[in-house]
Amino acid sequence: MKYHLLTKKRVLTGDRPTGPLHIGHYSGSLKTRIALQDKYTQFIIIADMQALTDNAINPIKIRHAINEVMLDYLSVGIDPVKNIIFIQSMIPQISELTILYLNLVNISRIARNPTIKSEIQQKGFEKSIPAGFFIYPISQVADITIFDADIVPVGIDQVPMIEQACEIVDTFNNIYGKNTLIRPKALLSKNGNRLPGIDGHHKMSKSLKNGIYLSDSPDKIVKKIKNMYTDPNHLHISDPGKVDGNPVFTYLDQFGTDKKKIANMKYHYTQGGLGDVTIKKYLIEVMQDFLFPIRIKRKQLSKDKKYIQDILKIGSEKAQEEAEKTLKRVKNAMNIDYF
Ligand code: TRP
After folding, report:
1. Which segment of the chain is annotated as a signal peptide (predicted)?
2. pLDDT (tens digit, 9 = 90+) per residue, 82-101?
């Protein structure tokens, strides 16, 4: 294990535990993690401290969500032996490093981050922003750099996070010593962004309630797909329909294996003569096939709370060891290693 840590490049990735994960998380990031887990030392952060920045009154929800997220990870094939999966709050070194970084950045610089800007709007924080929430982009920089991550897989909307990280790394290295911190690189996901929602909104998101969850029951999946947004101008079967911006086809592209059949359906849909009921029926079939093995595995895993607990404990211990090494290096560079 030590050998791997030394020789393989490092990836850092993770999620805020605020609830179970949906198929947008799967195609946007979980799939990438499964692909990367053999080649890299992959750290997966379950960012509970970050989740608390806008859920401070509800820590029980976060605690519950950690378990849900773990079940999602393991049931889609994230391997607990190949990855270091850990809970952010169990690594206090991250919080310490965050405080040190906060001295290297201006409030106006954080406010310019497009991600935080849109989240402030979305959450109605314009008038009063919780201070912890406002600085979470900086704690995210600590999440990445404390593990000497070389690579951070992100969607296009998360690129500013890596830019912020590189700025802090450069500032730190310039002041305290050239080679203290490693500059991370963004690895852009091939699918571009996350999946659209079942309501046609450009992003599937928990707060918009437009997601299909990896843990949804077969009945729920049928209901959700039956009510899915398609092409609003496709009123009669004979009308020509649009494939672009039609989430039914986006999902088919992502999860369907019979590419020929999908291409054929697209052709007929655009020509007119293919109804929404037919394409939805096929999508139901495709999604049930995709989610069936995940559901079975989830059910098995949910019986064994201790197993999940153990994975997190071992992962957090390992992560702490690595974080401590970096923090020592940082404090030494800064001359605050007093005793
Ligand atoms: N912000 C990410 C999310 O919303 C979670 C996260 C926390 C993260 N720290 C990170 C992702 C560091 C990548 C790198 O899910």
Report:
1. none
2. 999 999 999 999 999 999 99
